[in-house]
């Protein structure tokens, strides 16, 4: 073997060993003692007003996540961005296809979404049941509840159906016209995927998604829209 080939082979071996080391560490963290239900702060972006946490529940395969952020837009504008399902590929993390499947009422609907997966993994799809609990002055907030329904429609190979893409999103209007958003969620991508890979994605995806949200609510499509909301966000 030439010196060049030897160097390339050595670099590849080191890369594989490093990857496996991260995998082993992640699996140890996932399965080891003392997992508990404590949220761990993993991101504190003071410039963008975003905080992110994760935790490792004993009864779940992957990490759960939580976000707390301020969006420089009123409640209706934030809701408009979330309700515009077909526009998700423009700002939502690794979404390449999304559409409404069924409108049940003005506070309930189903939608379909396809996510690009990490390299070497098949893309994932999910059917999400969305329920809105509109804002009332007494409560002071609105809720947007999302729950994956894997059996709602037949599989679409080669896509892998996600087992969970569940979130509870809380919107609290602020006196200065901004909106506080709090999110708790859990994602199970289905199929076979290394724990270290999905846990790495779950550290990044929620953060970059809300960054996209902060950006998109400032665009003309949402900021100055005069169109009625497709779903109800206030009583």
What does this structure look like?
This protein folds into two domains: 1-32; 37-223, Alpha-D-Glucose-1,6-Bisphosphate, Chain A, domain 4. Helix 1 (3-31) packs across helix 3. Strands 1, 2, 3, 4, 5, 6, 7, 8, 9 and 10 form a ten-stranded mixed β-sheet that branches. It is globular, with a radius of gyration of 20 Å. A hairpin with an 8-residue loop joins strand 6 (124-133) and strand 7 (142-148). With 235 residues, it is of the alpha+beta class. It is built from four helices and ten strands. The chain has helices at residues 3-31, 75-83, 195-216, 220-223; strands at 40-45, 50-55, 64-71, 95-105, 108-115, 124-133, 142-148, 160-161, 164-173, 179-188. Keywords: Signal. InterPro entries: START-like_dom_sf (IPR023393), START_lipid-bd_dom (IPR002913), START_lipid_transfer (IPR051213). One of its GO terms (cellular component) is cytoplasm.
